[in-house]
Amino acid sequence: MADGPREQLFALTAGFMVTKAIGTAVQLGIPELVSERPRPAAELAAASGADPDAVTRLLRTLASVGVFADRDGVIEHTPMSEFLVRGVPGSFAAQSLLLSHIHFASWGDALETFRTGESAFERVNGEPFFDWLSWHPDEAATFTEAMAGGANVRRETLLARDWSGVSTVVDVGGADGTALVALLQQQPQLSGTVFDLPHVRADAERTIGRADVGDRCQFVPGSFFDDEVPAGADVYVLSRILHDWDEASAAVILRSVRAAMTPSSRLVLVEAVIAPGNEPDVAKLMDLHMLVALGGRERSEDQWRELLASTGFGPPQLSPGLLEADPV
Length: 328
Description:
CATH superfamily of the largest domain: Vaccinia Virus protein VP39
Radius of gyration: 21 Å
Number of strands: 9
Distance between the termini: 60 Å
Strand content: 5-15%
CATH topology of the largest domain: Rossmann fold
């Protein structure tokens, strides 16, 4: 018999348990251990230094929702759990740690966010998220890793774009350079700049060096709030940057980029557009998370049009995963 509405409501309300279970498995290193060799849960517990009964129950629960599989007592990967292995293309491991640990406490104070419209993270941790990261290098490394994992996914959107006639690209807030390096490898006519805060320089230069594109790619440190965006490029890419910020802050960023552009430059945003109506849409969940964790937001098509028009850009052209606009 199918679950009724009360059972469905319980499954939704208990989602926090799955969040923590996934994060715990990642912290224990279980995805990597399963990649080495599928084995019983008790052996995985021993290899990770954890309690065998507790890990068996943990993996039983995760297998029930499709994260790992139990084949006659042997724990194997599923298409979902494979993304929990650190370092694989598109890895979700670091993102799971952000959601299950760093951001989890913020959601515990979400009621005040919905009363006031203000981010919970700053109330819980004493300062805004990105300021807090500058004092917590381990968590900053996790965040950079999470952004790199997402960049591996989002870069496919960039790679599918037509880059003919383009010579220079600036990836604004480009983190460790994963997305830009992939683009330069595909498009040998391009030269690029990763622009981000100084603390990611080492990661970005390592990515650039490993890809052997150092003759066409550089890292420039700076803040997009301080009009330091490198000037004169053909295309300026912002990949999942503006959803971190409220309207006022997003407008400051866009004006900073606009000031660096030439009349023939083009703005390329890798961002979600919230679907209208009540159909399920992951962007609607992310919109709430951006509010609680960062004070940011996902945006509808009308909100994107209004924001761009107010910061010196023409109407955006929309394609799956992309918004593009010219300066006016």
